[in-house]
Amino acid sequence: AQKITQTQPGMFVQEKEAVTLDCTYDTSDPSYGLFWYKQPSSGEMIFLIYQGSYDQQNATEGRYSLNFQKARKSANLVISASQLGDSAMYFCAMSKTSTGTASKLTFGTGTRLQVTL
Amino acid sequence: EAQVTQNPRYLITVTGKKLTVTCSQNMNHEYMSWYRQDPGLGLRQIYYSMNVEVTDKGDVPEGYKVSRKEKRNFPLILESPSPNQTSLYFCASSVHLDNEQFFGPGTRLTVL
Question: Judging by beta carbons within 10 Å of its beta carbon (0-12, 13-18, 19+), is residue A31 exposed, middle or buried?
């Protein structure tokens, strides 16, 4: 069974600083995808970034980058130049794919990030 | 506007009274899914569907049913709700599971 672990229930970061949110995963499948989502206090789920298990390069989207270390089974999210609007809950998730057909998506328990002045 | 809609957004009901939460997407996505979010547990997948008439269980399917008769709609049915199904429910859709999932706004359900 696949599993996602986010060990940081809460994090603080000062505005304009960079922050890393940890995510480790466990799967025996060779093909999988890794996602990060943001959930602000308003409740909606916002997609941030995606990394495929066969992608050679780390994914980047604006101020977000995914530090993918396959051997360590980690997929940490790095937010550069934090902004007050980055204060939210962040979820790491993994999709299971086999023979080209995707099925389940498993989420971690989340990390609550608070950006301070 | 591309979106996933859910109705109702808020619902308070009583144990045993059947209810349906609707989910509709206008993006012609093949993949749709239901999740529940509970404090400290993150989001857990209830059911998913890879296309019309193709559905499968997620991690917490007990007490729920779904159907996918049309591509755009994926209703979640609680035949006999119980208090442990009090939760925040999200519907999501995507072209494929390895693409960005578009989430609905959520339905907050309370079962008394």
Answer: middle
CA–CA distance from A13 to each of A21, A84, B57 (Å)?
11, 10, 39
Q: Do B59 and A104 touch (CB under 8 A)?
A: yes
Question: In degrees, to the nearest 5, what angle opens at C-alpha B40 toward C-alphas B102 and A35?
Answer: 35
Spans of chain A, pLDDT less than 50: 98-100
B6 contact residues in A (CB cutoff 8 A):
none
pLDDT of residue A71: 93
**Range with lowest mean pLDDT among B71-75, B86-90, B99-103:** B99-103
Rounded to whole angstroms, how far apart are CA atoms B10 and B6?
10
**3-class state of residue B23 by DSSP:** strand
- Whether A107 and B35 lie within 8 Å, measured CB to CB: yes
Cα distance between residue B90 and residue B105, in whole Å: 7
Q: Which residue of A has its CA nearest to B100?
A: A47
What's the pLDDT score for residue A99?
A: 46
Contact list in B for residue A50 (CB cut-off 8 A) is 98-100
| N-to-C CA span, chain B | 36
Measured CA to CA in angstroms, residue B75 lies from A33, B59, B71, B90 at distances of 26, 18, 11, 11
Amino acid type, B57: K
Mean pLDDT of B82-95: 96
pLDDT given for residue B83 in this prediction = 97
